[in-house]
Amino acid sequence: MRDRYTITERLDHGGMAEVFRGVAESMEGFKKSVAIKRILPNLTKNQKFVAMFLDEARLSLFLQHANIVQVFDISKTPDNAYFLVMEFVDGCNLKGLIERQKQRGKRMETAHAIYIATEACKALNYAHFLEHPETNEPLGIVHRDISPPNILLSKNGEIKLVDFGLAKANSQIESTDPGVVKGKFSYLSPEAASGLPVDHRADVFAVGIILWELFTSRRLFYGDTDYQTVELVRQARVPSIAALNPEIEPELEAVVRKSLAKDPEDRYQNAADFGDALAQYLFSRRMKVTSRDIAILVKDAQVEMMRKRSAEPKDSLIDALILDEMQKMTSLVEGEAGPDAKSSAEGSMSLDPSAFVDTSNWVGELGVASAQQPAIKRPSKPPPNKPAHRPGAAHQTPAPGEIESLESMLEPTNVTGVHGKMEKPTNWLLIVLIMLVLAAGAAVAVVFAMK
User: What is the DSSP string of 387-444?
Assistant: First the structure.
């Protein structure tokens, strides 16, 4: 039996998705915090994106590492809305931590920056060389989107990478909102910016970019336009770190420069070698840093985040509409052994719409909510005129009208009619029963009055 979910707050939103915090509760009453990521509707219109997203997201289910955010489930609604249910990391992302340091007028300490990069390298090396548990064949996972927003830091000082399932799919977007990819070009590798084949060494290059920026408090590849940014990445000219931050010694700068070599053959050939070089520098300089040091930084950043959240709008109609979508979530992976396993409507359980409560007290983007999420029921068979999910179905083009408009989502909740159309339910039997009960009560009252 799958968990049921209760949404508690809206955490963040961007060009590709928006994230909510929730609670997963099992039948035994065990509860755990989860993050529920909703892919934005405009992306689901791109079938190439959807197909790539599903393939990569299923691969992410294999990833079980202390430095990687675990994905628990991939779900879809009849309106082609896709959700990822993931481990919730209570803290902030590296982008938020960088912004907080700038707000305080400080640069992140060298040791702290090295520690974060070293932990990220552990996660990447694990993912890059992960094998299929049954066939022992390399899965060939490459993140392709290592950037500050995708490096999460918990309040306990843990470093975790997120969005392995979205990175490759993002590269397949052909025509959509420019905001989807804006800012991501800055962390591409030269080979990716040139349209050449990309392997795990592209992720090594991205970690090198982040480390350079942490040491200098500046952006490495950032032009006035996306085109200029891509050209800067292609040229891969790296300014001197020591000229911008005299505290960085030549030995450390040499390590970063090797990770940023334009030719992949000149870089560290895997993330483990890069991480070892960074760790060796720390040990050689007797620079002590632990998760406790990172935790102090994260907690400070969280205080600032909470202050900003208090100023956010408290109510959102969009949040209510998203909750309405989530009531129809159906797992795409339940019962699957892996990416190639089959799934069907009988092997999944959707959320029960009748269990929802009023969501008018939902808060804004970062506040706390109390909307109760429904229990999950397992349907005995697929709904009439609606075929069970079959492998490859997500690659098909949706039929006209399959993706409902925002206006249609505002209509009262309906049920599926015998012809597959949405019709209003008829509860005449319930009305008759209520009338009979009222009549019986009136008769009893008359009898007592005559006495």
Answer: PPP-TTGGGSPPPTT-S--HHHHTSPP-EE-TTSSEE----HHHHHHHHHHHHHHHHH
300: its two tokens: 């400070």
What is the torsion angle, in degrees rounded to the nearest 10, for the CA atoms of residue 104, residue 110, residue 112 and residue 113? Answer: 90
Q: Which residues of 435-450 are buried (b: 16+ CB within 10 A; e: fewer)?
A: eeeeeeeeeeeeeeee
Q: Which amino acid is at 132?
A: H
Q: Which residues contact 375 (CB under 8 A, 6 or more apart)?
A: 4, 351, 352, 355
Check residue 184 and give its pLDDT: 76
Catalytic residues, which ones? 145
| Residue-wise DSSP of 254-304 | HHHHHHT-SSGGGS-SSHHHHHHHHHHHHHHTT----HHHHHHHHHHHHHH
Largest alpha-carbon pair distance within the chain?
Answer: 104
CB 323 within 8 A of CB 7: yes
Specify the 3-state DSSP secondary structure of 252.
Answer: helix
pLDDT single digits (tens) 360-393: 343 333 333 333 333 334 444 444 444 444 434 3
Rounded to whole angstroms, the Cα distance separating 59 from 26 reads 25
What lies within 8 Å, CB to CB, of 354 at 6+ separation is 374
In degrees rounded to 5, what are phi and psi of residue 415?
-125, 160
